[in-house]
Amino acid sequence: MRTGQLFRPSRLQWAWRAAFLKPHPCAHRGAWRGMHSEGGPYRAVIFDVGGVLIPSPGRVAAAWEVENHIPSGTILKAMLSGGEGGPWMAFMRGEITTEAFLQEFGRHCSEISETCVPVGSFFSLLTGEQVATQFPVMTEAIARIRAKGLQTAVLSNNFYLSNGKSFLPLDRKQFDVVVESCLEGICKPDPRIYKLCLERLGRQPSESIFLDDLGQNLKAAASLGMHTIKVNDPEAAVKELETLLGFTLRTVVPNTCPVRDTMKISRDPLEKYLRDLLGTQTTGPMELLQFHHGQSNPTYYIRLADHQLVLRKKPPGTLLPSAHAVEREFRIMKALANTGVPVPKVLDLCEDSRIIGTPFYLMEYCPGLVYKNSTLPGLQPSQRQAIYTAMNRVLCKIHSVDFKAAGLEDYGKHGDYILRQVRTWTKQYRASETSTVPAMERLIEWLPLHLPRQQKTTVVHGDFRLDNLLFHPEKTEVLAVFDWELSTLGDPLVDVAYSCMAYYLPPEFPLLPGLSGCDLTQLGIPTAEEHFQEYCLHMGIPPVENWNFYMAFSFFRVAAILQGVYKRSLTGQASSAAAEQSGELIEFLSDLAWEFAVKEGFRVFNEMPATKPSRRSYHVWAGPRPLPSTPGTRSYSSLPESSSAHSSKAALVISPESLPPRARELYRQLEQFMERHVYPAEPELRSHQASAERWTPSPLVEDLKEKAKAEGLWNLFLPLEADPEGKYGAGLTNVEYAHLCELMGMSLYAPEIFNCSAPDTGNMELLVRYGTEEQKARWLLPLLQGRARSCFAMTEPQVASSDATNIESSIREEDGFYVVNGHKWWISGILDPRCQLCVFMGKTDPHAPRHQQQSILLVPMDTPGIKVIRPLTVYGLEDAPGGHGEVLFEQVRVPKDSMVLGPGRGFEIAQGRLGPGRIHHCMRLIGHSERALALMKARVKSRMAFGKPLVEQGTILADIAQSRVEIEQARLLVLKAAHLMDVAGNKAAALDIAMIKMVAPSMAYRVIDRAIQACGAAGLSGDYPLAQFFAWARALRFADGPDEVHRAVVAKMELKRRS
Ligand SMILES: Cc1cc2nc3c(=O)[nH]c(=O)nc-3n(C[C@H](O)[C@H](O)[C@H](O)COP(=O)(O)OP(=O)(O)OC[C@H]3O[C@@H](n4cnc5c(N)ncnc54)[C@H](O)[C@@H]3O)c2cc1C
Fold first, then answer.
1. Which helix (H) or strand (E) holds 838?
2. Residue 583: is its pLDDT beyond 80?
């Protein structure tokens, strides 16, 4: 999928993880008043106080009575006693002093309850700050009503305090009109006080809404024509008011939504838990919302009374081991609270899964700004610069924490952080893998082989990015760093690289709008390099060379995380609806990661030290006669001896003597095996190929195969990068194998004896890389064991097959099967009776984009409909028993699980198959050439012509020199390509692969031709392997793709290169 498609605006609607709160601009008092007015017919809202704006005296009394063991209802009865003339109403009209009221009221209470009632204590509670505080929901509602241009008023039945002031614990500035009963000498439900209020507002009764908690007061208002709302619960009343006015009165918590069905949590046990935790004053209903972000750990907003909290919990369902550890998040934030690192204040960790089904923790809700867009739209360049600097500094603060002093010494293992991380994320990725992502496969192999040598240990955040920071609304100050789920002790540079990911993401990237392609200078944003340099400078560390490794690792890790999110979305466990889309991003991110891996590979390659000379030897045995056992000698450049596979990856080993010990030992063993068994067997094998039994495999080959297997000289070809654990092959790098493969190339029969021959090698690699476990069990194992052989069917007689997009064979779906029809030729190995598998390339969708039409099927050779028409010959040679066959596929039906990787992936697979596989041919061609040159030297030394040995002829000397030079050049190019494949991957080595494919067959063709010429007519005979070498080198100028195609690739790449 193209990135443009991937980032369509419709896909941008989802937020990512900890993007906390970007509050709405404050509706400042009167800011928009007079500009316009909403609210339908209503122009004013009038509020009672007790029970509406602050807790009702009745409710306060009820709680107080319980606490003071006073019979329930005493205070309420005393308030109502005496009606209009009673002490409470007289007090409300301001007719009696506080002292007189308390005396009289106390007496009434004692009469009612028949006990002494300390009314003074109740009065203090009622008027004290702890209780008499305006409900936040009402404060917000009033601000919004006024912001919409409506008037507000207080119509209060209140009283004087002992200090002579009226009791009105409210900010009077919130109201246009304040009417107090004690000042006016009249109180509700007397209609006069309502009229007074309306008069002062200048409104008709019908233009107003009145809120009160007492029915009698509301009845009076309604009889005047006012609209009324009975307030039992302030939240519910505000909702009702919203409906009447037609606009919202509550702050919509940014980035929240109603809790999604799959993420519902039990409200009642949670509410009870919170009330117990927060204390008895937490009246009113609980508001519960879910943040859009929190793909990994679901995150909720809670408002309970005047508490605003954030709850983070583990997701439901079965979880991957050690993931979603909210306990760790809680622990680190608590530990960092006093270290200068800004973190939200954590309140409580609840590990009891019975409350809401999983452990969770609570923290204070922090209002502030979260910048989700890395370009920081709407800000000045200087502000942007300051924000990036603040981000950098806060990261330095995290990495400077003395983790021992903070009690975090055991928060993570010390050392080998990245290796452990690569393993962990590989494991997590595998556990949630839903399809094969080629770049992820390459990274999984590449990362462990390129780990940084030195790693510091500090606290690492693990998910450090701009949108995990909460900024002060007015200053460029980081108020809090969120989302510590991935925090641990580890290499701090991982955080720095991670924080730079946005630089490489496009602005429309859904997870985090990036900066790629933006003019950073104009924006005022430092470049990634500057950002990193500033970090190094501030931390007092030198610049980091393997920066690309850290970037590759960062993108790999995010891709692995997203794979988990995606898998959970498939099972309905993901905490975000958008999690489903994460599947599409995995390939994009892993490709990006791989680009950095390639850059790092080139950096290592370019920084390789210069080489120095050493020795190399080759056998010169030529045919049926015993040959001198003293090897010919050559000198080559080499690096000092390396001791491990890893060191050979980091250096271009150009001599077998400089191979790491294991590869060198294999080379020595192979050399001995060739001398002891292979060269001596050549005459018999050649005779067999010329006999009537030639289409039956030679028993001698089978015998030698068993011997080679027993000596461990088996399946040496499978590159370490395709088989990192050495599960299937010998675990050699491409460079190591290049030396061994060259040695096998000394004899045409050797590769099969070591189970390293084409086309099986390419097919086995294809199965290792792309096959399902079932496909591997059925086909790979017999091939690895040498029990079966295979062929690869691509070329077709009717089309120019050097362009694989021309392939016409069809693969159609029919009744749950694939049906194959096509005409193929030059299919090497298909005539071999051991050939059980045909790796078939055909078109599943001729209308798809050009490179997505082809697919690859695994077709068992015994399927009805496969007809081998004839064997083809190369210069008259049949290459029995495998041969090169022309074959028809007619209505060949195979089960659907025979498809490799999926429909339309054929081109991609063929490229993967033919990368390393084709360079094996080049390696062998170097072997053919060495053998040809050795035969030539032996021959010209022993033959006399015109009175002197042939070796003294100037033309012969010139030919020998020319051949040596050409072999050397080609070998160096083979080794360079192999080395680049090891350190930077097959894709990065594409140019070098194309160059050597262009060079090696022609070079071998020339060297062998000179050798044939020097050997005289014998060179063309069956006594020497030269004629077969020659035919094969010539054939490889097609078989491996025509020279011209490789030349075209090289030229195209060359023209693309910067001069
Ligand atoms: C010994 C041998 C073994 C083989 N084994 C297999 C096998 O196992 N499986 C399989 O599927 N195939 C096999 N092949 C076939 C081989 O892959 C094809 O021959 C090769 O891909 C070329 O295709 P073609 O023969 O159709 O040539 P065409 O595509 O018809 O090309 C003919 C010529 O056109 C010219 N040409 C083509 N493209 C360009 C270009 N871009 N620029 C300039 N000139 C160009 C070249 O001179 C080329 O030689 C084998 C071939 C040989 C000789």
1. strand 835-843
2. no
